[in-house]
Hints:
Number of strands: 7
Helix content: 40-55%
Shape: elongated
Radius of gyration: 31 Å
Number of domains: 2
Order of helices and strands: HHHHHHHHHHHHEEHHHHEEEEE
Strand order of the largest sheet: 5-6-7
Amino acid sequence: MKKEKNKKHHHRIVPVALIALGIPVALVTIFLISANLLFHDEQPPNDSSLLLPNVTVADEDNAYTDIQKLDTDEQAVDLNNDQPSNDKSIDTMLNGGTWDDAHVTTLLTKYATVISDFHAAAKKLQYQDPYAAHPSTLTMYSPLPDVGTPRSVGRLVALESIRKAKNGDIAGGLSEATEVVKLGDMIESGQGTLIQWLVGSATKLIGLTALRQIGLQTTLTADQAKTTNQAIETYRDSQVGLVKAMKSEYAYSILFYQQQRDFGQAYDSYFLSTDSNGQQLYRSTTGKILSALDAMGLFRFYYWPNQNLRFMVEAREQLVDVAKTNCATGNLGEIYPPQRSQRSGFGRLLEPNAIGKLLADIGRISYGGIVPKRCNESLAVSATQATFAISAYQHDNGKPPVMLNELVPKYLANVPLDPYSGKVLNYDAAKKIVYSVGQDRKDEHGNTKKMTDYTTLGGDWQNMLDPTFVVGK
């Protein structure tokens, strides 16, 4: 009797277990089918504001060709192996420290060929990466140019310009340093990636640093000061180039979207293989399950490609707006695209396009910190103009000006502005400095406080609360 009872009891457990397991599966299936009927992906968004035009630049006018030679020349290999970008003595000399003429001569002799290529590139009219010139033809395999070498060579050309000026060829030194600024600006202004823009920006700042040292270490005439100041004014703001860089980033990122537009393609590319006859085979049971779910329309509730594209478009449009930020009034801090997922944990299972939103949130990157780099370029131009004008004024009058407006119109067309305040650049005749209120827009009366480890005027002005520059002798 006992055995019979146990047997009956056992028979009751099996259906109960099946029911207990089947109910949740049925509920989930009903939920997903209902959700698929009630919720649908949206129409593709309008991304016309992010599309870049095709650009045509003749090879003879394109600095890109000469810059690529910098990486193929044998000296470029030595340059990258020696890594003079890490040579601290170069930074020391570029910023007015102890001059080692023997070391400079050795560097300029060793890298004479790539320096010549740099000069050739700077004489061209434009810089344009040919792959980014036609955005609609980009693929996932389009190569990204290596533009790091121009910055390294630019530092050597900057040293060459200072040495020329110190040895009496002031006009030649000014011309070479201005070439560094020009080439940096061309790289920024070309239709290319954000990395290219950053390299161009860094190269431009190297040239402006060399110009300031020429102004401090030599005697400039009023004509030399005013002519060079007018020349570098054309390279003041790189907003147009930065906007192009942000749009180029979209052109490259849309490639990934296009390849993964259908979530089925995403997992098929991973789970599918082919046999010797070209027949598709699933690599695992997981692939079969996912494919079955997608065929039933169940999985599409969690991934909406068009909505994901809208997230991408909106994020890039926001970054384009960030690139246009006013240095004196705009937000210079970190700016992130909006959070897309409204639920977390188990609640995400009830959220349409949960996978897409999760991916969008994982890819939330702020480019807010890029704006101060653009603003610093404008500040460096103002500081260089003030340095030149004050140097020439002091040579003519035997003393520095009391106020910057005394420099107009003989040495300057206009008084240089502080991009972070929108007002005239601050000048302290007694301390022989000009300075900006900096990113916090608070006047600390010059470099009286440090932001990182820089405690002297010889430190990196870009890390000072009040970026400060020595002017006059």
